[in-house]
# Entry
Amino acid sequence: MKNINKRNYFAATLASSTLLLAAGNVVADHERVGDVLQVLIPAISYGATFYLDDAQGRSQFHKSFVTTAGVTQVIKTW
# Structure
């Protein structure tokens, strides 16, 4: 499969899974949907770096994840 086809397939999968998750939880409260999505979106993104064999993207993900977690914890303690 060409690299661009992999990306299109991944984008479509991400969009449809997010929509299905949101549609399936219409009755659920918005906090639960937010809790699920805050884990699901980074997990799918990280998985995509393996699927697309993107070592540079994986390195960027690690750096941004650690930076975001660190800044969030610092702001929460203020």
